[in-house]
Recover the amino acids of this structure.
C-alpha cells in the first residue's frame, strides 16, 4: 500500500515536492473541498482557457469548485517539478494510441514529466513521473451497482466477485475498478480498450502480469479506493 503525499492548496508546498527527484515517481492526495477558497483565488492566474471553459460548464457549484481545485493542484505540482510558475505550464493531449486523434493521454510540452489526474467526490489524486503513469481514485459504489458492473470485467474477476459475501463486493469492485482505470489511463487509451481484456484481480494485492507496468494500491480515507500504474 502506497502512502501518498498530501497537498493542501494555498499552503506552502511540502518539502517532499521540492526534494522529489525528477527520476522518480510521486503520488499526491488533495482534498478538493477547499474551505478557505485558495483554489478559487489562484485559478485566474493558474488555469488556462480550456480549463476555465470546462469549469464554467459544470451545473453544480460544488462540482465546479472541485474541478478547479484539482486542476490548480495539478499545475502547482507540475510547476514545482518543472521549475515553472503553475500558470506557465502548458497542458495538451498526446495522440490517441488507438485512433491517432487528439484525445490521448494529457501531456505537457515543458519537460520530460508524465502525469495523471483523477478526482472523485472530494478527493483528487495526482501521479507524476519520468515514465507514463496512471492514477485513479473512486468513491465506493453501493452494493446494487456491483451486479451491473461485474459483467464488464475479466471473467476471473467476475467470478471472484460472485464468490464473495455481498457486503464485501463493493470494496472488491472498487479495487479492481481503480486498478483498471489507472492502467488504461497510463496507456493513454482509456475505457476504449475494454475492461474485460486485462486481469488485475479483486483482492487486497493487485495481480501481477501486466507487461511493462506495475500496479500499486494507494492509501485513501474510508469510503474511497485508489491505485496508481507506473510504466517500468
Amino acid at each position: 500500500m502506497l502512502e501518498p503525499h498530501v497537498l493542501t492548496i494555498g499552503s506552502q508546498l511540502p518539502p517532499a515536492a521540492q526534494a522529489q527527484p525528477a527520476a522518480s515517481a510521486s503520488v499526491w492526495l488533495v482534498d478538493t473541498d477547499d474551505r478557505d477558497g485558495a483554489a478559487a483565488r489562484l485559478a485566474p492566474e493558474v488555469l488556462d482557457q480550456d480549463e476555465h471553459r470546462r469549469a464554467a460548464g459544470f451545473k453544480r457549484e460544488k462540482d465546479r469548485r472541485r474541478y478547479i481545485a484539482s486542476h490548480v493542484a495539478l499545475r502547482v505540482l507540475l510547476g514545482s517539478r518543472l521549475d515553472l510558475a503553475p500558470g506557465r505550464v502548458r497542458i495538451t493531449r498526446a495522440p490517441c494510441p488507438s485512433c491517432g486523434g487528439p484525445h490521448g493521454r494529457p501531456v505537457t510540452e515543458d519537460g520530460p514529466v508524465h502525469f495523471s489526474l483523477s478526482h472523485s467526490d472530494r478527493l483528487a489524486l495526482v501521479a507524476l513521473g519520468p515514465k507514463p503513469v496512471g492514477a485513479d481514485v473512486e468513491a465506493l459504489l453501493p452494493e446494487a451497482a456491483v451486479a451491473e458492473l461485474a459483467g464488464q470485467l475479466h471473467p476471473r474477476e467476475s467470478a471472484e466477485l460472485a464468490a464473495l459475501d455481498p457486503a464485501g463486493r463493493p470494496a472488491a469492485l472498487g479495487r479492481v475498478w481503480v486498478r483498471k482505470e489507472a492502467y488504461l489511463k497510463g496507456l493513454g487509451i482509456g475505457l476504449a480498450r475494454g475492461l474485460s481484456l486485462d486481469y488485475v484481480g479483486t483482492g487486497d494485492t493487485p495481480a501481477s502480469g501486466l507487461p511493462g507496468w506495475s500496479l500499486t494500491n494507494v492509501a485513501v480515507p474510508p469510503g474511497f479506493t485508489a491505485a496508481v500504474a507506473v510504466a517500468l
About this structure: Residues 137-231 form a domain with the Ribosomal Protein L22; Chain A fold (CATH 3.90.470.20). Strands lie at 5-7, 26-31, 91-93, 106-108, 114-120, 123-129, 133-139, 213-217, 224-231. The longest helix spans residues 61-82.
